[in-house]
Amino acid sequence: MTDRAGTPAQASDLIDVHALVRAYYELKPDAADAAQRVAFGTSGHRGSSLKTSFNDDHIAATTQAIVEYRTAQGVTGPLFIGADTHALSAPAMTTALEVLVGNKVRVLVDEFDDYVPTPALSHAILRWNNNPATRAEGEADGIVVTPSHNPPSDGGFKYNPPHGGPADSDATGWIAKRANELIAGGLREVLRAEPSAVEQYDFRSRYVEDLENIIDMAAIKRSGIHIGADPLGGASVGYWGAIRDHYGLNLTVVNPAVDPQWGFMTLDWDGKIRMDPSSPSAMASVLAHQHDYDILTGNDADADRHGIVTPDGGLMNPNHFLAVAIDYLYTHRSGWRADAAIGKTLVSSSMIDRVAAALGRRLWEVPVGFKWFVPGLVDGSVGFGGEESAGASFLRFDGTVWTTDKDGILLCLLAAEIRAVTGKSPSELYAGLVAKHGDPVYERVDAAATPAQKLALGRLDGDAITATTLAGEPITATLSRAPGNDAAIGGVKVVSENAWFAARPSGTEDVYKIYAESFLGEDHLRQVQAEARLIVDAALG
């Protein structure tokens, strides 16, 4: 961690917005250079125009590929599109609109030319497709132009098919391959036109007015609790004021500023500006107000992540809040199916496992990536799906789907509901869970790995683990596939009674990530981390 972490950004930390946008149009990618090709990660294609990894050619080709993909899949309805506040989002959205209109796709943009959070777009897709009258016009899908919490120099581009959530790897693999073919062909097959023939959609009002069907807004209002909401300069900036006004809440929008340089941010752990509401360093300026509100929240640039700050506990660890949210929801949502499972990613805290067992609910553990929760949220068989990186969504009061993408606004409002209904802060409630189930220590660290080792780790089978103990305890499971859906996890997870670790290769650096947790204290966690390196290295040969 840099010694500047948590300190205000200086002029030297800020991007040159004009240079960034100029590079978007002027720099042309080399299709033969892997670093300049379209590549979809767990949340779309991301890159920077200055590195020739997010430029006009990339977005034109990717949009054309999406048009061809949706046509092949028989998607004939409208395409919803929205963007966040990153500097590259506006030009990328213009490029996408040119291609969509050029291909005669029916496009719906925000009625007020407002920014569109990822959950609001997912909500719009599902609202259209779940209404028989609108669905009869053809299924809808969508595009969100956002690199999420990434630094101001980055751009991002996500495709959400008709189920409303992140596209699966089959879809993104096809789209990326086709986009790179189009770039290599000089974009000769890309159709573009003046982006004038578009329709409008009120994302904000429809999302805000529907919140009463998933959050007890009346209880929050009755309680009179003072809520502070900081959009961190992101797409939720217009939504929090609308929520306050529509429901009559005692809510303050802490910082309504929008600045593509994010000059008001404090630096993250590595000295970069990063709008991560789960990072104490990035949230330092927000934390300065923790005693001014009963609940204080933050969102990232596209509002799919949440940060929860309480007067007594400060910024909650995302795993801690997920455990509290699950314990509360499954005892306060009588309209959910009795067999609705609890969804978690395999690198989330085992505190969730213990909470699920105490609730008598089935735990559904899946690989990293919110896309895995989509089917269960759609059919109501999963009541809640959450990731350790502060992303989650859950069902409406009646057990039907709300969003199939992460919803940071929703989780922030849930924190307010929990405070209003229980009279306790989420951090106080977590202390109660610790008293019942133990106090886990969780951390993610990196270990060096060559590209060949990373490739091998991604394909490693759990049976290749020969160790029989982990930090003094017998190993009870060695996993290379997720217990919930039997999908490959792209690495391994090793479990004992009171500890576990998971190892997964990084997609961008020559390292692999080690997630580890222990219920036996800090020293035991360090032993788990040390042995994890030895176990993985031995398995990789």
Automatic annotation (TrEMBL):
Gene3D superfamilies: Alpha-D-Glucose-1,6-Bisphosphate, subunit A, domain 3, Alpha-D-phosphohexomutase, C-terminal domain. The keyword Transport does not apply. Keywords: Isomerase, Magnesium, Metal-binding, Phosphoprotein. Residues 488-533 form the Alpha-D-phosphohexomutase C-terminal domain. InterPro entries: A-D-PHexomutase_a/b/a-I (IPR005844), A-D-PHexomutase_a/b/a-I/II/III (IPR016055), A-D-PHexomutase_a/b/a-II (IPR005845), A-D-PHexomutase_a/b/a-III (IPR005846), A-D-PHexomutase_C (IPR005843), A-D-PHexomutase_C_sf (IPR036900), A-D-PHexomutase_CS (IPR016066), PGM_a-D-Glc-sp (IPR005852). Its cofactor is Mg(2+). SUPFAM superfamilies: Phosphoglucomutase, C-terminal domain, Phosphoglucomutase, first 3 domains. Residues 38-181, 206-313, 317-435 form the Alpha-D-phosphohexomutase alpha/beta/alpha domain. Coiled coil: none annotated. Belongs to the phosphohexose mutase family. This is Phosphoglucomutase, alpha-D-glucose phosphate-specific.
